[in-house]
């Protein structure tokens, strides 16, 4: 990435972060940058918002990183389930946009 593009990206992320703080969304810069990158890669923003809301419903993990094989398996299953959830939500939103089926 050229220096000008990198500077613009940093400024944009800082602006989004400030807006996030004003709206009290509780999203850090890293999370925001991941969400922006996913949108840049074509994921539906509404589907991503649904995933963020779903993550917030989950109770916090007791450890920041899985340590036992069971924890690692659960974390892997959870990531797979969230990918599936995001994909299904994206398909549902696209279908509703095409058919005007939002209620």
From TrEMBL:
Pfam families: MOZART1. GO terms for cellular component: gamma-tubulin ring complex; interphase microtubule organizing center; spindle. The keyword Cytoplasm applies. Coiled coil: none annotated. GO terms for biological process: gamma-tubulin complex localization; microtubule nucleation by interphase microtubule organizing center; mitotic spindle assembly. Keywords: Cytoplasm, Cytoskeleton. Its main location: cytoplasm. It is found in: Cytoplasm, Cytoskeleton, Microtubule organizing center. Belongs to the MOZART1 family. This is Mitotic-spindle organizing protein 1. It comes from Cynara cardunculus var. scolymus (Globe artichoke).
């Amino acid at each position: 990435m050229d220096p000008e593009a990198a500077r613009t990206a940093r400024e944009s992320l800082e602006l989004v972060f400030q807006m996030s703080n004003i709206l009290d969304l509780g999203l850090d810069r890293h999370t925001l940058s991941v969400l922006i990158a996913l949108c840049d890669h074509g994921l539906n923003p509404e589907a991503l918002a649904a995933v963020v809301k779903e993550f917030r419903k989950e109770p916090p993990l007791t450890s920041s990183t899985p340590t036992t094989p069971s924890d690692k398996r659960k974390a892997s299953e959870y990531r797979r389930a969230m990918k599936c959830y995001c994909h299904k939500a994206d398909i549902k939103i696209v279908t509703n946009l095409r058919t005007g089926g939002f209620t």
